[in-house]
Amino acid sequence: MKRFFILLFIVATFSVAGHSQGYHYDVNGDGVVTAADVTALYDYMLGNVPSGDEHEYVDLGLPSGTLWATMNIGATSPEDYGDYFAWGETAPKSVYDWSTYKWCEGSYNTLTKYCTSSYSGYNGFTDGKTELDPEDDAATANWGSEWRMPSLDQMQELYNNCTREWTTRNGVNGRLFTSEINGASLFLPAAGFRDGGSLYSSGSYGHYWSRTLSTSDSMSARYLHFGSGGVSVYDNYGYDRHYGRSVRAVRVP
Q1: Packing angle, helices 35-46 and 2-17, rounded to 10
Q2: pLDDT tens, position by position, 162-181
Q3: What contacts 197, CB < 8 A, 6 or more positions away?
């Protein structure tokens, strides 16, 4: 019934707007209102809104206004694992270890960027950076400037405002985050992580990078971790920035 009334409203709007040069739902900006423009308006009013670059997102009604992408970077559906990224790198690769990690000189304590401890930095290097620059953000680099990897605060906000159900969708295990504010939901597959040339824990655990460095040590970064037993936002002492983990992008209107 809701869809019926929305459709009637759109038809009425279309009829009136067809006689107005000030029409604001000309999606292509060509001065001609087409069926595609009306379809886009229909999707917008139902809340099924792709962004301008066609990556879909869901509005969970979060206090910050953060919108979460419906699928991982590199994925073709919400259940698809997608690509894996070392923290601060923007492309997948075949081997994930310190010898291939972009921001070091071959080992965990030779960091060349995002380092707050002289022990971890190459020849004592520090720069005090605790969040990824946009050019080192896998979401921004792959999807454009409207998108970022979530910050620690955005991950914590997701955790605090949603129920978190371990479930299976289309044969894929994962966590369904359902907003306690507006009832919208977000599925994160248990895609595991990559270390060296191997994939570990797929189907059992999800590992999703934030863009925030660990407060425990510079060799690690914060990430959302879950399995069938629970969900947490990790700040571990794990020397694991070189691991390949999933990225679920966010944007703020």
Answers
A1: 140
A2: 999 999 999 999 999 999 99
A3: 94, 95, 96
